[in-house]
Amino acid sequence: MNYPAIKAIYIFEMSRMRRTLFQSIVSPVISTTLYFVVFGAAIGSRITEIDGVSYGSFIVPGLIMLSILTESVSNASFGIYFPKFSGSIYEVLSAPISYVEITLGYVGAAASKSIIVGAIILLTANLFVPIQIAHPFWMLLFLVLTALSFSLLGFILGIWADNWEKLAIAPTLIITPLAFLGGSFYSISMLPPFWQKITLLNPVVYLISGFRWSFYENADVSVYISISMIGVFLMICLILIWLIFKTGYRLRV
Amino acid sequence: MTPSENIIQIKNLSKNYQDGFRALNSVNLDIRKGEIFALLGPNGAGKTTLINMICGIVNIQEGEVKISDLHNIKDYRKTRALIGLVPQELTSETFETVLSTVNFSRGLFGKKDNPPFVEKILRSLSLWDKKDNTILTLSGGMKRRVLIAKALAHEPKIIFLDEPTAGVDVELRQDMWEVVRQLKDDGVTIILTTHYIEEAEQIADRIGIINQGELILVKEKDDLMLELGKKHLQINLTEPLKQLPLELMDFQIELSPNGKQLIYTYEKIDNTGVSLLLELLSSLQIKYSDIDTKESSLEEIFVDLVNRERL
Ligand SMILES: Nc1ncnc2c1ncn2[C@@H]1O[C@H](COP(=O)(O)OP(=O)(O)O)[C@@H](O)[C@H]1O
Ligand SMILES: [Mg+2]
Q1: How far apart are CA B59 and CA B49, in angstroms?
Q2: How many domains does chain A have?
C-alpha cells in the first residue's frame, strides 16, 4: 500500500472543503433551518406526529440522509471530474499508485466531507427539535455506509462524465428525485398501497428507513433488509469501479 | 551493452488510438543512464504519445517498455517511482497553493514529507517567494516552474520534459537549462521533446528524430551534426554576374538575386569540392573579394531528413 499517496489525495481533497469553509458549513446550516421553518412550522402544524414522533423530529434523519446523498455524489464526482477536466489527472495516472488507493483517497475524502455535513445538520436540528438516538452504533453504520456507497457512485459519475452538463445532470435527474421520494418527509405507510409497492423499488427508501430506525426505532422496512440493501448497493458500485479501472475506461486512452 | 547502462528500453512500441489513428509505429529506443536525450519532431509526430506510454498515462497494447530492467506495467510501482514528468500542457489544480501542490506530488509518489528538500527545489526554481500563492495567480512561466517542481518533488531518477520551453520566456529557459544541467550532474537521466532545434543542439547528448509516429534516426548529437551537417560557402564577387555560368552547373551552387554572391552548399565530410570550385572560378576569370563559410543548423538537417523520409 502506498499510504503517503492515499494521505496526499485525501488531504488535497479535504483542503477544498477548508477553502470553501463557508459554503461547506454555513450552507447546510441555512438549508436545515429553512427546512424546519417550512416543513416543521408549516406542515408540522397539520401533521403533528408520525408513529409517535413529532413531525419536526421525524424528518431529521431524512434531512441528514438527503444531504449525505447529494453531498457524497457531488463531492466525489467533482473531485475526480475536475482533474480530468483540467488535465492534472496525468499526475495521478503516472504515480506509483493502485486503483484501490486512488479510490480510497478520493472516495474517502468525499465520504468524510458528507459525514461532517451530516453531523452539522444533526447539531443544527438539535437546536430546533428534540432528538434521540436509540441505536448510536447502527446510526453511525448507516451514515458511514451510505456516505461511502454514494461517494462511490459519485466517483463513477465523475469518471463517466465527459462534460459539465453530464456531471450536473445525474444528481438532479436521479439523486434528488430518489431522495425526495425516499420518505424523507413522510412515512411510506402513509401512501396508498400501490405507491407503497412502487416506492420499495427506490433504494433510498431503505437508507432512510434504516437510518430513522436507529433514531426512533420505527421503520418502514426491517432494519436487516435496509442494511442488506446498502450492502448490495455498495457491492454494485465496487464492481463498477473495478471494471472501470480494469479497462481504463475514460481515464487512459 | 549491459542492461543496466540502458535505463529505458522500448521495444516495438506502437499506438493505435481509439479512433483508429496510428500515432506510433513500432518504436525501438534505448535511453542511456544519465544522458540528456532530445526527441525532436514536428507537431503531431507522436512525442507526447511516446512519453505518455512510458509514464503510464496512455495504455499500451503493442510492444513493451522497461525501466531499469523492470516492466513498466507489471512493476509499475517501482518503475513509476523512478520517473518525473513535466507535461506539455499547463495543468494544475488552480486553487491550491504552490507549496501544497508540490507536497501533494511528493506524497502521491509515496514519499514522506521532507520540507527542507521541497524548499530546496522551490528555491532552485525561484518559487520560494511564491510558495503561498495560489496557482491561479501565477503567470504562465511561473506555472511551468511549478510543474517542474512537482515533477522533481519525489526525487526521480528519470525526468521527462515535454516541450518544456513552448511559450516560455528567455529567463525561464535559462533557469530551466541550469536545472537540467544540475540534474544531469546529479546523475538524473533527462528526456526532453522539442521542435525547437537549437534547443536539442544546445543541450542534448543524443538526439532522436521522430516523424509521423516513426523514429527516423537516433544519433549522438555531435555525430549527427558531423555526418549530416552541411556547410555553405559564400563567395562575394567583385563583378556581379548576370547568370550562373554553365561550367558551374555541376556544383550545388546558387547565384544571389543581385548577382554579387555565389552560394555553394556541400557536405562537411566532402573536402575536395571547395578547392575544385575555386580553381574553376579562377580558370573562368571570375574574381572574388571574399569568401565565408557557415554550418547548417540542426533545423536544416531536420527538414532535410523529414523530406528524405517523404520521398
Ligand atoms: N487521445 C487521442 N486520440 C486520437 N488521436 C490522438 C490522441 N492523442 C493524440 N492523438 C494524435 O496522435 C498524433 C500524435 O500526437 P502527439 O503524441 O501529441 O504528438 P506530438 O507530441 O509529437 O505533437 C497526433 O496526430 C494527434 O492528433
Ligand atoms: Mg506533444
Answers
A1: 10
A2: 1
In the numeric block, the cell 548529437 is attached to: B221
Residue A95 to residue B93, Cβ atoms within 8 A: no
What b/e readout covers B173-210, taking b as 16+ CB neighbours within 10 angstroms? bebbbebbeebbeeebbbbbbbbbbebbbebbebbbbb
Q: Residue B280: which domain range?
A: 230-295
CA distance B72 to B51: 12
Which amino acid makes up residue B129?
D
In a domain, A253, yes or no: no
**Burial classification of residue B306, based on how many CB atoms lie within 10 Å of its CB (0-12 exposed, 13-18 middle, 19 or more buried):** middle
Domain containing residue B248: CATH number:
3.30.70
Q: Write the residue in A2, A11, A252 that is nearest to B110 by C-beta.
A: A2
- A166 falls within a domain: yes
Q: How confident is the model at residue B309 (pLDDT cuts 50, 70, 90)?
A: low
- Substitution target from A90, A99, A101, A249 for chain B, most B beta carbons within 10 A: A90
Distance CA A4, CA B104 (A): 9
Ligand 1: which residue has its CA nearest to atom 24?
B44
| A171 three-class SS | helix
Residue A130 in domain: yes
Task: Work out which ligand 1 atom sits closest to the CA atom of A253.
Answer: 1
For A1-25, how does the pLDDT look when each residue is reduced to its tens digit (9 = 90+)? 889 999 999 999 998 888 877 777 8
pTM of the model: 0.84
Pairing of strands B261-267, B230-237: antiparallel
Q: Is residue B89 part of a domain?
A: no
Q: Per the CB < 8 Å rule, is B17 touching A253?
A: yes
What is the domain range of residue A111? 3-247
Ligand with smallest separation from the Cα of B89: 2
State the total domains in chain B: 1
